Amino acid sequence: MIDALRYEYLRLRTIRSTYWLIAIAMAFQLVMSIVLATVISTSDAFVGDNTFDVISTIGASSGVAPLFIAYIIGLLGVFSMGHEYRHGMIRATLTAIPNRTHVFVAKIVTTVVISALAALLCVLIALLCIVAYGLDLPTARGLLGMAAGTAVFTALFSLSGMAYATITRNQTAAVALLLLVPSVLESIIRAIVVAIKAASDDPTSEGGVMNILKFLPYDAGGKLYTRASLADLLEFLGYKPFGAVGGGIVLGVFVAALLGIGYALFLRRDA
């Protein structure tokens, strides 16, 4: 297992995508943090933890935008397995480390560690911008809650990308799935469910078909970092979303299922 971790660590150190993806995420976070800090410094609408939440997530905490850094960093997960098949390196990898379980687990560990650390660096950049602009600092609880939520969501998001690449063995398809499932597929499902509920005999009743929305994995996982959501507007249709813990569990179970499918296929398929 140690050899597999060393092999994966060395592989990540020697491919350029590791560096430019992290650099893009850092640069995006820095530029957007400066822009938001500049705007917020001239407004009285943001105070306390709200300021930190908005800047650290680039507006995603309000539910009006996705967590963009997760989409950038998540590509690390896709590339961790996608590069192996795209460039035919999976044969060399399995020749060096014949134990496929060790190879798969090593990729999970390195993807989680790098994704979480990159997300925490983005949070740190936001905090430094807040200090530089003299804005309200977050409370310790607010800081830890947002940092942990952002890191956990980003790590799970990256792992789902790795799972898509393992299942499809196609890097382009995996990237498309990572981008489209959270942003397009879940939106389509949400629109269909809302339409069915609105057309029902009792549209304001709690539960029913609206419970489906609670289990949309990426939307549910977003509760780890959102403090308000556009989906909350659906409460008049009986929608009661999970909280941060429940939403994180839903996303975690979904990612674990994807990884389980990917692992089973990884063991059975030819390299």
Describe the fold and architecture.
By secondary structure, the chain is an all-alpha fold. The protein has one domain (1-172, 180-268). It is 73% helix and 0% strand. Helix 4 (68-86) packs parallel to helix 7 (140-168) and helix 7 packs across helix 8. The longest helix is centred in the middle third of the chain and has 34 residues, at 100-133. The protein is flat, with a radius of gyration of 20 Å. The two termini are 20 Å apart.
Strand portion, in percent? under 5%
Radius of gyration: 20 Å
Low-confidence stretches: none
Tell me the overall shape: flat
Order of helices and strands: HHHHHHHHHHH
Number of strands: 0
Average pLDDT, all residues: 86
Task: Provide the helix percentage.
Answer: over 70%
Report how far the terminal alpha carbons are from each other. 20 Å
Largest sheet: none
